[in-house]
Amino acid sequence: MFLALKEIKHEKLRYGLIIAMIVLVSYLIFVLTSLALGLSNQNTQAITSWNANSILLNKDSNTNLSQSLITQEQDADLKLTKNDAYLAQASVVTKSSGHEQIAANYLGLQKKQFVNQNLKLSSGHKAENDHQVVADEKFQHSGYKLGDKIKLNSLSGSYKIVGFTKGAKFNIAPVLYGTLVGWQSIRGLGSNFKASAVVSKDSHVKSSNSNLKNYSIKQFIDKLPGYSAQNSTFTFMIAFLMIISLIVIAVFLYILTIQKLPNYAVLRAQGIPAKVLVKNTIFQSFILVIGGIIIASILTILTALLIPTSVPMSFNLPLLSLVAFGLVLTSILGAIIPVRTILKVDPVQVIGG
Amino acid sequence: MSTIELKHINKVFGTGLSRVQVLHDVNFTAERGELVLVLGPSGSGKSTFLTIAGGLQTPTSGEVQLNQKSLEQLSQKDLENFRLNKIGFVLQAYNLVPYLTVKEQFTLVDRVRKAGNIDSNELTNLLKYLEINDTVDKYPAELSGGQNQRVAIARALYTDPEIILADEPTASLDTGRVQEVGKLLKELATQQNKAIVVVTHDLRLKDYASRIYQITDGKMVEDSKDN
Ligand SMILES: Nc1ncnc2c1ncn2[C@@H]1O[C@H](COP(=O)(O)OP(=O)(O)OP(=O)(O)O)[C@@H](O)[C@H]1O
Ligand SMILES: [Mg+2]
């Protein structure tokens, strides 16, 4: 440890540059991971906030909420409990003078059921009639205020924002929570249809209708349009980034160790045990990487504080810790690879005659 | 009963056209209590001989014995211990760790070898004797060649080894210092009963030697002292 620290102290520039490189690499990984996660969360935020475990959809809907409809007839075959709640989805575009158009998901809820009951508002109140909606914070960030009237698609009636809620994104689009009747008129379906789906906190909704099928929330999320494709793209991007960065860091630490060999040869000639040298090398890599990761973490936190809210960033501490752990592990590996060389270092070759 | 004994040592580098035999059937002994000088011109095989004697490289054939123990029989770890505890090396170049101050070169040894090193009084006296006591806070790059060499000598003596192997320890010293170093080495041999082997082309050390070997083109012969 003595050698490792003295060396860093004496060669500030060299080690400063290496730490800077580790900082940049880990910062890049941290920020990209958080961005990817942020985007991924925008698909599922609303679903996660319901705390549901299963969803009942029309079996011909391809596990897609917007393709699913439950008729009044089918509804008669359902036995809903207090753990079940209707969900009625309509894709809408909101228009309001002086505001940009926003593509949103209208989700009709039934007042007394758990999704509506558990809805957490950051301001205002829940929808009390069919022309009131609770809007995701995205609307607030876009300049909408409580009491603002919005038009949906090219429908004639207008809807009033009576409340705001946080973290209500479904399939990237912000959610407007309304009522089942509101939904019927938006979709123009009349009263033949009850809702799009039923979500449940239980493992399934009791149904005796063979046209309706229960899915787990995980199955449902995986089938969200574009979700899996997006996720696997990001996973691969980050995995490649990780692997390449780790190789780069490992290579740097390798070169660093190789450059130390003349010194090590002297020390070995003097009888300093190889074990001491190996320990020092690994300890040094450890310090460099930990130092780099700490600085990168601070930068990432600063970035999160400064980045505009329109860019979703989501920090998952366990995931980021895992990434950091991976960095530490590979860099130690990078330092260990040349250990064989340290053990084999031939003092004579370096010392010369 | 020799402390260092080399028997029929041959050392060959390379193969085929690039094959060079650097040492030819070298026989050598050094005992505790004597300062043995190995004199030879540049390229004669002095450093090769010394590093083989200290177990830093292995001979192509022949046997090296330190304290009646064949080096071949020692494990890597035993050899390390042997070098740390029994041998003091003064190498021809690169003796010091560049990122440690002179004082820290000794601290490093303390950390690895917790007991048996000379105490701080003795070290101060040694550094004073070698006239390097005012360099303790300097890095090797800030020292002259001669100062570097004297720090290397002090470093080799720090562990109070039985055997000292020195490669050109006086190469960049002026005559006055050569005499001091010669005297110091001689005293260490006779008064502290160490075996000291110095390989050099520096004839100025001749006066301090107990015995002298001549090496030319890898062939070693013992000189009779009186010619
Ligand atoms: N690893 C090696 N591979 C090939 N040849 C070598 C090697 N090491 C030394 N030699 C050769 O062996 C010969 C003796 O080298 P050595 O270093 O022992 O000489 P020396 O007597 O110490 O010389 P100097 O006084 O210049 O230090 C030289 O010709 C050198 O080129
Ligand atoms: Mg030499």
From TrEMBL, chain A:
InterPro entries: ABC-4/HrtB_transporter, ABC3_permease_C
ABC3 transporter permease C-terminal domain location: 236-347
Cellular compartment(s): Cell membrane
Membrane-spanning segments: 15-39, 234-256, 285-307, 319-339
Domain of life: Bacteria
Recorded GO CC terms: plasma membrane
Main location: membrane
Keywords for the protein's UniProt record, in alphabetical order: Cell membrane, Membrane, Transmembrane, Transmembrane helix, Transport
Membrane topology term: Multi-pass membrane protein
Role, per record: Part of the ABC transporter complex hrt involved in hemin import. Responsible for the translocation of the substrate across the membrane.
Family: Belongs to the ABC-4 integral membrane protein family. HrtB subfamily.
Subunit structure: The complex is composed of two ATP-binding proteins (HrtA), two transmembrane proteins (HrtB) and a solute-binding protein.
Name recorded for this polypeptide: Putative hemin transport system permease protein HrtB
From TrEMBL, chain B:
Xref: InterPro entries: AAA+_ATPase, ABC_transporter-like_ATP-bd, ABC_transpr_LolD-like, MacB-like_ATP-bd, P-loop_NTPase
GO cellular component: membrane protein complex; plasma membrane
Xref: Gene3D superfamilies: P-loop containing nucleotide triphosphate hydrolases
Compartment(s) of residence: Cell membrane
Membrane-topology descriptor: Peripheral membrane protein
Keywords, alphabetical: Amino-acid transport, ATP-binding, Cell membrane, Membrane, Nucleotide-binding, Transport
Top-level taxon of origin: Bacteria
A GO molecular function held by the record: transmembrane transporter activity
Entry keyword ATP-binding: yes
GO BP, sorted A to Z: amino acid transport
PROSITE patterns, sorted: ABC_TRANSPORTER_2
ABC transporter domain boundaries: 4-227
Subunit structure as annotated in this protein's UniProt entry: The complex is composed of two ATP-binding proteins (HrtA), two transmembrane proteins (HrtB) and a solute-binding protein.
Function: Part of the ABC transporter complex hrt involved in hemin import. Responsible for energy coupling to the transport system.
Family stated for the protein in its record: Belongs to the ABC transporter superfamily. HrtA family.
Name under which the protein is recorded: Putative hemin import ATP-binding protein HrtA
